[in-house]
Write a structure and sequence with these properties.
Blueprint: E1 6-11, H1 15-26, E2 31-37, H2 40-50, E3 54-58, H3 66-74, E4 84-88, H4 93-102, E5 106-109, H5 114-125, H6 133-143, H7 162-172, H8 177-184, H9 188-201, H10 207-216
Parallel strand pairs: 1-2, 1-3, 3-4, 4-5
Helix pairs in contact: 1-5, 2-3, 3-4, 4-6, 7-9, 7-10, 8-9
InterPro entries: CheY-like_superfamily, NreC/VraR/RcsB-like_REC, Sig_transdc_resp-reg_C-effctor, Sig_transdc_resp-reg_receiver, Tscrpt_reg_LuxR_C, WalR-like
GO biological process, one term: phosphorelay signal transduction system
Protein name: DNA-binding response regulator, NarL/FixJ family, contains REC and HTH domains
Length: about 220
């Protein structure tokens, strides 16, 4: 996380919502709104020009949608991946999974309280993922099975020890570190160590990518 204020770029086509984001985030003592973009093409330009710490990204941007913008700036091909916090609504749930696969660090619902947006920006800026357990279970679980799973045998999951596989399953279920610790009767710090090992062994950036991989490999499924 940066030593100075968190530099935020807001990508949102609706002026009223964008203004609300600017007002709330700009009022935070530890944040600075460095730019705005009202369409996907401008978003790409501004992200490249400003190099913000966190990008608040709407999915339904004109000219170039937020998923494609996220893929270009945060996906595997990005030279310096941006940290993207996607904002969306329940009625476009299938796009949320696509956004996470594209490299987003997490997402919030547009009808969430605005103070949750500020907390979300801080979470993403710290390099952590933002996945609400309830939303993870209903959205990720519902749409992840639409992606053709790869065969686990001989795949990346073979790198994990049995206990690490247990932890990964619980991560994919939307459990927090504290909940995983309670489930497995472990200390929270021990769980953090397991999570770090999992991400390192699987060459993943954060918990979001771990959830996606768990579904794609068939370790977990929408049916449980």
């Amino acid at each position: 996380m940066t030593d100075g204020p968190i530099r935020v770029l807001i990508c949102e086509d609706q002026q009223l919502i964008r203004a609300g984001y600017v007002a709330v985030l700009g009022a935070q003592p530890d944040m600075e709104v460095v730019g705005q973009a009202e369409n996907g093409r401008d978003a790409l330009t501004e992200i490249g020009r400003l190099r913000p710490d966190v990008v608040v990204m709407d999915i339904q941007l004109p000219l170039l949608d937020g998923i494609e913008v996220t893929r270009r700036v945060a996906g595997p091909q990005a030279v310096k991946p941006a940290k993207v916090l996607v904002v969306t609504t329940f009625n476009v749930g299938q796009y949320v999974y696509d956004a996470l696969r594209a490299g987003a660090s997490g997402f919030l619902l547009k009808d969430a309280p605005l103070d949750e947006l500020a907390d979300g920006v801080r979470t993403v800026a710290r390099g952590e993922s933002l996945l609400s357990p309830a939303v993870t279970r209903t959205l990720i679980g519902r749409y992840a099975d639409r992606v053709q799973p790869v065969t686990p045998t001989g795949g990346p999951l073979d790198r994990l020890a049995p206990r690490e596989l247990e932890v990964l399953k619980l991560i994919a279920g939307g459990l927090s570190n504290a909940e995983i610790a309670a489930e497995l009767v472990l200390g929270v710090e021990t769980v953090k160590t397991y999570v770090s090992r999992i991400l390192t062994k699987l060459d993943l950036r954060d918990r979001v990518q771990a959830v996606v991989l768990a579904y794609r490999t068939g370790l977990v499924s929408a049916a449980g």
